[in-house]
């Protein structure tokens, strides 16, 4: 498990426990690696199974796990942001180059590494390669100190994607991580209820669903039959979705 998957499980347990009123107990422990990740224990004695999976660009999982450990920020005395141009990049090397580049930009009072004097770049081959290879954009911002990390973005025509979010959900069957998690929770026949929670990162969503300002899906999601609840949350959403009792609904976050 990486930090990204671990965080997804924490989020799912918190949200499902709040909404269902169940105590959420880790279950894939003590050697039970083929077991569902959590049990849901209700006061009336019913027991449910909760499985959690991520949907993201496969190539980006490793670097995003490292970014999460860094708190999605690198140390710097001034305020910057870094946005990769592709879904994957050499995280550790890029981190070192970015921190060095920020220090040079502060020294020369410029807002991007591309504006550094040519003689400075001649003495910084790693930074020159960073710029030449188009690894990402590093620019000054007016916020708190540090280099904030963001995921890559994808340009597309909104009209080219389906308006019904259920069609997007169905496309996740092509994601390699979904099938085993779905099969695992569907196979938890000893449980009174089977729940699947999907954390989909914004990089894997069509632009029209990047934020949560869209209507609830209009139709049932095909391929998730047998589940008592399908939960969905993305990293730029301020609420989360649930498909339960044949109805989609938005659910507000628990109060802090």
The residue ranges in which pLDDT falls below 50 over 5 or more consecutive positions are 155-159
Radius of gyration: 21 Å
Largest sheet: 7 strands, mixed
Beta-strand content: 15-25%
Instruction: Find the structural class using helix and strand composition.
Output: alpha/beta
From the spread of the alpha carbons, the general shape counts as elongated
Number of helices, where a helix is a run of at least 4 consecutive DSSP H or I residues: 7
Order of helices and strands: HEEEHEEHHHEEHHEEEE
Strand tally: 11
Mean pLDDT across the residues is 88
Helix content: 25-40%
Identify the strand order in the major beta sheet. Answer: 1-2-3-8-9-10-11
Separation of termini?
A: 28 Å
Produce the secondary structure layout:
Blueprint: H1 3-20, E1 23-26, E2 38-41, E3 47-55, H2 61-69, E4 73-74, E5 79-84, H3 91-108, H4 118-122, H5 125-132, E6 136-140, E7 146-149, H6 165-171, H7 178-186, E8 193-200, E9 229-234, E10 239-244, E11 247-252
Parallel strand pairs: 3-8, 5-7, 8-9
Antiparallel strand pairs: 1-2, 2-3, 4-7, 5-6, 9-10, 10-11
Can I get a quick summary?
The chain has 256 residues and is α/β, with parallel strands linked by helices.
């Amino acid at each position: 498990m990486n930090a990204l998957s671990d965080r997804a499980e924490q989020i799912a347990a918190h949200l499902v426990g709040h909404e269902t009123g169940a105590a959420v107990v880790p279950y894939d422990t003590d050697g039970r690696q083929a077991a569902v990740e959590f049990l849901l224990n209700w006061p009336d004695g019913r027991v449910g199974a909760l499985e959690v999976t991520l949907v993201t660009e496969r190539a980006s999982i490793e670097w995003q796990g490292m970014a999460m450990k860094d708190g999605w920020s690198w140390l710097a005395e001034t305020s910057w942001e870094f946005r990769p141009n592709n879904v994957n990049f050499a995280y550790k090397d890029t981190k070192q180059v970015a921190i060095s580049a920020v220090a040079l930009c502060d020294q020369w009072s410029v807002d991007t590494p591309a504006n550094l004097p040519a003689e400075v770049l001649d003495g910084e081959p790693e930074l020159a390669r960073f710029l030449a290879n188009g690894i990402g954009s590093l620019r000054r911002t007016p916020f708190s100190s540090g280099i904030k990390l963001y995921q890559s973005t994808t340009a597309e025509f909104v009209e080219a994607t389906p308006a019904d979010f259920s069609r997007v959900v169905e496309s996740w069957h092509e994601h390699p991580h979904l099938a085993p998690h779905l099969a695992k929770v569907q196979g938890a026949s000893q449980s009174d209820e089977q729940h699947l929670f999907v954390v989909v990162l914004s990089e894997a969503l069509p632009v029209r669903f990047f934020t949560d300002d869209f209507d609830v899906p209009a139709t049932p999601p095909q391929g998730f039959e047998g589940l008592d609840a399908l939960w969905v949350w993305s990293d730029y959403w301020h609420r989360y979705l649930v498909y339960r009792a044949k109805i989609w609904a938005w659910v507000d976050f628990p109060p802090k």
